[in-house]
Design goal:
alpha/beta
């Protein structure tokens, strides 16, 4: 084999390896999962597969991971807010109304954090588990930590998602778009905001 051919093969193999690592690593990067620790609250932000997110938060609350169950999100269709729908779901599953808080105005991840900060201050909430879809996990954590600053602790718990998995997101055009979009939004939230 000629020297030129060996170099070409080496470069192509290195490039292919880098692409594979990027593809696999991107899913793991945007979808972290922290170890659970008892917190003051469990915060469920609405969005894709909101019912699944709510159910994950309800399970965490029932298992004793937080004393208060917070639901955040405006109405997707100008009707009942997503937060209120999630709260009603929790109550129907045995969570007492007094253990829940709703924030019904936020339409974005930034607004989730901004509108919940005064709620946390009023309720003396200093730590929370954030529940969202896996592809939204990193951005949610970055956004809440930036908005709240020091003195607050956030852990992330990605709810399951029927369409997206960090180990196979590249197998469908829709989840590729979603992953690349979330990676861009995460970069923006972390470095440009």
């Amino acid at each position: 084999m000629s020297r030129w051919l060996r170099r070409t093969v080496t470069v192509l193999l290195a490039f292919a390896t880098a692409v594979i690592l990027l593809v696999i690593g991107l899913g793991w990067f945007i979808a972290p999962r922290d170890d659970l620790k008892k917190t003051d609250a469990i915060v469920v932000v609405s969005g894709g597969e909101t019912a699944t997110r709510a159910d994950a938060g309800i399970r965490l609350w029932k298992d004793g991971w937080g004393r208060t169950l917070v639901f955040a999100g405006a109405a997707a269709d100008r009707g009942t807010s997503n937060a209120k729908v999630m709260q009603q779901r929790a109550i129907s599953q045995g969570v007492p109304l007094a253990a829940t808080i709703v924030e019904e105005q936020s339409r974005t991840t930034n607004e989730n954090a901004r509108f919940l900060k005064p709620v946390f201050e009023a309720q003396d909430i200093r730590s929370a588990i954030l529940v969202t879809s896996p592809y939204h996990a990193r951005r949610t954590t970055v956004t809440f930590r930036r908005e709240f600053g020091k003195g607050y602790e956030f852990r992330i718990y990605p709810a399951s998602d029927s369409r997206w998995a960090r180990s196979s997101w590249w197998q469908d055009a829709g989840t590729i778009r979603l992953t690349v979009s979330e990676a861009g939004k995460t970069f923006y939230a972390a470095f440009l905001r």
